[in-house]
Fold:
Amino acid sequence: TAPKIIALAGSLRKDSFNQKLINEAARFALESGAEVEVIKLSDLDLPLFDEDIEAQGTPAGAQLLKDKLRAADGILLASPEYNGSITAPLKNAIDWASRTEQGAVPAFRNKVTALYASSPGGLGGLRGLNHVRDILSGIGSLVLADQLAVPAIHTKLDEQGRISDADTAEQVASLAQQLVSVASKLNK
Ligand code: FNR
Structure:
């Protein structure tokens, strides 16, 4: 069967560059034969993590995210960089999804993850990816050694949000294909 891939970006912004980037990665993964679902964090009911809220019951958005991650083989993740690190919305989503019910499998465990970042700046959000990698590895995700940080992203997307720069498109596709290839092995 086709490997199942979840694609998400760590921004809540309507015109998020990282959302556009991961939409493109998702399209390439689909073309490589995967079953792909794009999840937008801004569509989910994900309050700021609070153990008091959790004690009253897991919010619907957090449960949905957890269930979808558990059912997936791989994750395409685009992380914007805020002050050299992970964004609060992404960390919040990871914290919610990391919580396990009694006897349940941790949501990120043994999921292969491909990391992307993009920024209007010159490093493309590369510094933040170190932190994202560390967090995800720590909760059992198999983070691909290869990753992609796209600098000057605002010059590389067209009006439809498609990548207009050929080299960038090739790099985005190549990492997505690698993820699909590893995810299909896990899926066996
Ligand atoms: C930024 N930005 C930014 N960019 C970068 O390359 N390195 C950084 O450390 C930071 N730091 C930072 C902090 C905060 C609080 C904000 C709001 C922004 C700029 C950032 O890359 C830019 O706003 C992107 O457009 C954010 O990604 P999305 O929302 O377009 O996906």
Remarks:
- The first strand starts at residue 4 and ends at 9.
- The beta strands are 4-9, 35-39, 74-78, 112-118, 142-150.
- Residues 11, 13, 16-18, 80-84, 119-121, 123, 125 surround FNR (CB under 6 Å).
- The mean pLDDT is 97.
